[in-house]
Amino acid sequence: MFRTALRNVLAHKARLLMTVLAVTLGVAFVSGTLVFTDTLSKAMSNQSAKSYEGVAVSVTDYGRARGEDGQKQGDPGIGQQTLDKVKAVKGVDTVSGRVQGFAGVGDRSGKLIGSGWANAGANFAPVKDGKDPRYTFTEGSGPVKDDQIALDKDSAAKGEYQVGDKVRVATNGPVREFTLTGVFTTEDGAVNAGGSLVLFDTKVAQELYLQPGFYRELSISAKAGTTADQILADVKPLLSKTAEAKTGAALAAEQAKDIERAMSGMSTGLLIFAGVSLFVGIFLIYNTFTMLVAQRTKELALLRAVGANRGQVKRSVLAEAGVVGLVSSVIGLACGIGLAVAMRSAMELFDAKIPAGSLIIAPATVLVALVIGVLVTMLAAWLPARRTAKIAPVAAMGSVHLPATMKSLVLRNIIGSVLAVIGIGVVLLGAGQKSDGRTTIAAGAFFLIIGLFVLLPMLSRPVIAAVRPLLEKVFGVSGKLAAQNAVRNPRRTAVTAASLTIGLTLVTAMSVIGITVGQAVDRLSTQNIKADYRVTMAGEGMNLDKSVLPALEKGKGVTAVSPKTMEIVRIGGDSRTVSGVNPAALDAVLNVKTTAGDLASLGQGKLMVSAKEAQKRGLSVGSTVDAQYDDGEKGKLQVGALFDGKDQLEDYVLDNRILAAHNESQYLPEVLVKVSGGTSAAGQQAVVDALGKNPAIKVSDKAAMRNEMAGMINTSLNIMYGLLGMALIIAVLGVINTLAMSVYERQQEIGMLRAVGLDRGRVKNMIRLEAVVISLFGAVLGIGVGVFLAWAGGRTIAGSVPGYELVIPFDRIGIFFLLAGLVGVLAAMWPARSAARLNMLTAIKTE
């Protein structure tokens, strides 16, 4: 029986090709993901270990911590005295103090080199012979004066800088010009993430990032014969309560685990694509084996007649599936390795420097690829094999096909209806639970989709019947025959359409929710922000220097400037985040609607509170609350106004001059600017000029603000469209396979149609229209279910998105329909050509 199974595989190579392609695609994504993440994880772990070579112990101190009273206590970092004490510990060879922060380097045109969030600055800390063990200089040497810097090799190349050149560098303050003294290579994570690294003299770095005389980190090396654990034990008593000391080996191990966790998240995301591919592929495999078994009914019945029992017949079909799965897995594994190499190269195209390292093909990856491919194929082939084994030899010998019994169809429809009703009910229940109902909706969606798949054969008849008159009217006899053929075998039509249904359900749901949220965010930014520009650091969330405020106020054409600082203030005994603004400019840059009191009261030193927070705490205009500021000073604040509490401001708002008086180093993430004449290229250039053409500062107009706010939404949608693309590929394979086998089964029928006058062109049209009808059937169901799930999912997030109103993107839905139709046209090209080229006489004689 096994030899028979092998002969059947070889005898039906062409008809099994699409199955092989479907399994190969899924296995390639799985194995490619595993190889890529294993390779990247190993390379990054090795790189991390290199960065700790020669480091016996590392000490880190993040500075002042807030005590129970909410006030900052302690030193800002590790002082020079502590460093000297550590250096005197027995067994310590060298100690280098480190500080780091943000530093942006502009190229010769003034454009920022690298990604804003990965642009770093640090101090050059030589320990022996004027060398810093963290950096290897390829040109020149490290900075030793206030006006000198060194640059990493990649950044120097991108900026076309040579040793001796003048380089403009910005931290969070004004741009400064330095002389380049050296170019170095490093294992620093910022550089390997596609950013840049600037080395300053230690005194300069301390002034920029911390405080003169203090360090954020100490790197300690040991003398020969002294262990890291011995040094760690001796160093710990010398440190403050806020400092943390660990051995270099422990830190390298921690970073390796962090990298593994990060890779796990990436791997999960990529494996979702593979999972969708394999899930959709199951329907194609099932359909293929169902048709193959139906075409070989007489052959299988003959095996039964000559002595093969049911188990042997079923095992022969499963063995055939196993061989196909094994071949597909091997090909998929090879393609996956190629995909991993391609993904690695693609990341480098986006300036993400991948650490050097060999390709990691773990035994577990090979095993997973083979097992998944074989199991998926055999799982999909199990039901056709089981159904075939149940057919009695005499009954099978008398029929070429295996028609489903009325009992099985009724049972199938009952089961499908029950599952679909349960799914709809659970989804509706989840929609009524608001933010707590997302898990419930996901469970309901699972039952609904499974129920829908079971019901697809029943649904195909009325849906396709509805378009049959249109097909007859437009395409004549070809359209009529196409509609009839599409419902001739409802199960086959249903399974073929399933791949598109899955893909379009996911994509439609995400598109509707994404576009709805996007428009809500767009309205929010348009309605609430009146400023023409928002000024931020290139790395989102980083702190602007307070010097940008007077610089902007002096800018040409600037009419209003307001900071949006954030400070922790104890109000009424509880720590609260307070927004600091410019009262004189607030109304010009933000649309703040007061519900009680007067906005002008901010300029009088009074507190503005959101109406929701005021109701929660029992506050009203005129109420007085106790306040304790960042420097410990206490006072009282009177509530001067209540506002609607839009998300542009915190629940508490004060004049920033009050907050600045109690904190010299405020957190200033953004500044809003209004210019005369509104948004224009000249206006934006005026703001850029006012900031000294600082490459580290980003000036965004309203369009850019909207794009930034909707960035995550667009990323999610792009991922979903990637899933749609994968589903479309599988759908094309499925439709090609179904039509090819259908043409094979209907050779005699097609020959008769040709004999009675149906020309080649109309035969082609018949096959094409059949494919388009099947594809659009899947699209209709997928889009319908997707919109329903989007409505339910939207109900769970409406409370957290101001102005949420469901939007049906008819333009994108129209595109989805066009894509589905295109799938049908493309998939039908080969089968239609084969059908049109059949010899009439040969086809008529075919049994």
TrEMBL record:
- Pfam families per record: FtsX (PF02687), MacB_PCD (PF12704)
Identify the residues that the record assigns to the ABC3 transporter permease C-terminal domain, covering every copy: 272-393, 723-839
- What membrane topology term does the record carry? Multi-pass membrane protein
A single cellular component GO annotation: plasma membrane
Question: Is Methyltransferase one of the keywords UniProt gives this record?
Answer: no
InterPro entries given in the database record: ABC3_permease_C, MacB_PCD, Macrolide_Exporter_MacB
Give the main localization category. Answer: membrane
Q: Where in the cell is it found?
A: Cell membrane
Q: Which residues form the MacB-like periplasmic core domain?
A: 17-237, 493-682
Alphabetically list the UniProt keywords: Cell membrane, Membrane, Transmembrane, Transmembrane helix
Q: Tell me where on the tree of life, at the top rank, the source sits.
A: Bacteria
List the GO molecular function terms: transmembrane transporter activity
Instruction: Write out the similarity annotation.
Output: Belongs to the ABC-4 integral membrane protein family.
Q: What is this protein called?
A: ABC transporter permease YtrF
Instruction: State the species of origin.
Output: Streptomyces lavendulae subsp. lavendulae
